[in-house]
Design goal:
about 0% strand
Length: about 220
Amino acid sequence: MDLGGLRGYTATFLRGRFGSSEYRYQHQLIRRYVGHGGRYLHLRGGVLFWPRPRQKLFQYRLRWSARRASTHDLMTLLDTGGWREQLAASWLIAVGRRADLRDRIAQDLRSDAPSGYGWDYCTALARLGTDQDAELLRRYLDQALLLPRPLDDDDDWHCQRQAMGALLYLDGVLGTSYAQPLLTAGGLWRQWSGEEGADSLEEERALIAQLVAFAAGERPLIKT
């Protein structure tokens, strides 16, 4: 049991019920978008393997929530700093193609202490799907690939592999080559990863493609 998360959620609940109007507003948002049985946790990948009728129902609910969420709602979820809130907000940005939140994503990715769990941002940027989003990912990677490679592959602060997968996906969609300089001999990706080439990133690129398809309401093609 995640006691830290439980204490945090309980504290948020109590503040929401008895605190200021701002705390009540935050609590309502968390209950609306995060607290319904942890449904957004399925977006870590489990939804990709669901039967298609169940996927369609989940996608319908996502679209409804994305239309309902205001810019202020999404900014508030991101400001809470919790990974569940960021997961929900990032997916609502992706589903609604909320380009108005692009600058906020860029700000978080450039932060000295990144917001963490940035792979959800990679999905959102890939779903937005423009040259501007590819350039944002490239700028992030130009900085993040200068950092030491974490000892733990599940490092929460950075998302270099996922960002490379998203960038390769966008290159394929846009017909661009933003990722290519990073992949050349002596390029930043080669240095950071220990000389891994583009082939090593196919799993990340394919996963991003599946998540973008799901966010668009389509059926993700899963190889089993």
